[in-house]
């Protein structure tokens, strides 16, 4: 069938794999955005810059930190970076929330968007001044070097790991927010903070940690992306517009919608590269326009 269309099965499977990998990044990043908007009502336009920070902090820990400390053995390897980098960048997010964003919760969404957009420009400008725009390489961990022979194609081990790690984090996050007592406190704290606080829940601290977790998800995606993409100050800016489109399609604030839509749109983007490559760069935005016309709240969003 595919031969009649002039498409080899290997090309189709390869693009589907790329689409699944991209969809995994879309899912993790849009999940962080959905958590922040759904629970804090803030449109976090600095999410792409925080994703870039995650990749850069991992690269610095692997290549620059030993030089700074004068100790070649003091290296933050990939596995340590998966844990430490989200904590470091998440702590930066907590600082932003406590010192700036907290003042904007009762104002229009536009103020939060403008503030986070300004923060993104500052972060990108600093990293561009320090490291330039050419980009840096992050070595794939030794355990994931090489490929797996699936019979119809060779699957790079690291890319398979990215899909598994991203989907695991996404569904664990969804489960905690939607199916546990902690998640019920988070939802109650955003819908009626005074009543929730009357039951002894520290709502301001919970909101701060929620923002930090959303930022940590972006940093986690950055660490996963570092061995695949060039670590560059512009890597977040190139991705954030697509991720915002994914969130809009899935429904602003919908955790499940962010995950499902991110993966699905990544696969659709991969298929478009096979059958109509010229449209692959805009297919997500075309889908967004159609969804907004038919269902303005998004596929999984709630009408207000």
Protein architecture, described:
The protein has 304 residues and is mainly alpha-helical. A hairpin with a 4-residue loop joins strand 1 and strand 2. Strands 1-2 form a two-stranded antiparallel sheet. Helix 1 packs antiparallel against helix 8. The N and C termini lie far apart (46 Å). The model has no long low-confidence stretch (mean pLDDT 88). It has a domain of 207 residues.
Rounded Rg? 20 Å
The whole-number mean of residue pLDDT values reads: 88
Structural class: mainly alpha
Q: What is the count of DSSP helices, taking H or I runs of 4+ residues?
A: 11
Euclidean distance between termini CA atoms: 46 Å
- Sheet with the most strands? 2 strands, antiparallel
Multimeric state of these chains?
single chain
Elements, N to C (H/E):
HHHHEEHHHHHHH
Helix content: 55-70%
Q: What coarse outline follows from CA principal-axis ratios?
A: globular
Total E-strand runs: 2
Stretches with pLDDT under 50, minimum 5 residues = none
Strand order of the largest sheet: 1-2
**Residue share in β-strands:** under 5%
Q: What is the topology?
A:
Elements: H1 9-40, H2 47-69, H3 78-99, H4 109-131, E1 147-149, E2 154-156, H5 157-179, H6 181-191, H7 193-198, H8 203-225, H9 237-250, H10 255-275, H11 283-294
Antiparallel strand pairs: 1-2
Short description:
This protein has a domain at 26-232. The chain is built from 11 helices and 2 strands; from the N terminus they run ααααββααααααα. The chain has helices at 9-40, 47-69, 78-99, 109-131, 157-179, 181-191, 193-198, 203-225, 237-250, 255-275, 283-294, and strands spanning 147-149, 154-156.
């Amino acid at each position: 069938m595919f031969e009649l269309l002039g498409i080899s099965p290997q090309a189709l499977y390869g693009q589907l794999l790329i689409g699944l990998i991209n969809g995994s990044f879309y899912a993790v990043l849009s999940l962080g955005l959905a958590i922040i908007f759904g629970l804090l009502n803030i449109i976090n336009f600095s999410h792409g810059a925080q994703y870039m920070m995650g990749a850069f902090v991992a690269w610095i820990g692997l290549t620059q930190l030993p030089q700074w400390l004068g100790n070649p053995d003091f290296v933050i390897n990939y596995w340590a970076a998966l844990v430490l980098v989200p904590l470091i960048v998440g702590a930066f997010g907590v600082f932003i929330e406590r010192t700036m964003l907290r003042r904007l919760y009762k104002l229009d969404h536009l103020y939060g968007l403008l503030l986070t957009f300004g923060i993104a420009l500052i972060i990108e400008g600093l990293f561009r001044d320090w490291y330039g725009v050419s980009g840096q390489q992050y070595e794939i961990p030794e355990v994931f070097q090489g490929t797996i022979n699936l019979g119809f194609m060779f699957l790079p081990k690291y890319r398979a790991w990215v899909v598994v790690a991203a989907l695991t984090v996404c569904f664990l996050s969804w489960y905690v927010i939607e199916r546990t007592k902690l998640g019920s406190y988070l939802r109650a704290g955003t819908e009626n903070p005074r009543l929730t606080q009357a039951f002894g829940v520290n709502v301001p601290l919970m909101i701060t940690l929620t923002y930090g977790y959303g930022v940590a998800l972006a940093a986690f995606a950055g660490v996963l992306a570092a061995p695949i993409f060039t670590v560059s100050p512009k890597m977040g800016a190139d991705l954030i517009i697509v991720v915002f489109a994914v969130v809009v399609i899935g429904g602003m604030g919908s955790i499940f919608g962010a995950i499902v839509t991110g993966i699905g749109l990544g696969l659709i983007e991969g298929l478009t590269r096979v059958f109509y490559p010229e449209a692959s760069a805009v297919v997500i935005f075309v889908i967004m326009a159609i969804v907004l016309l038919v269902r303005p709240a998004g596929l999984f969003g709630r009408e207000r």
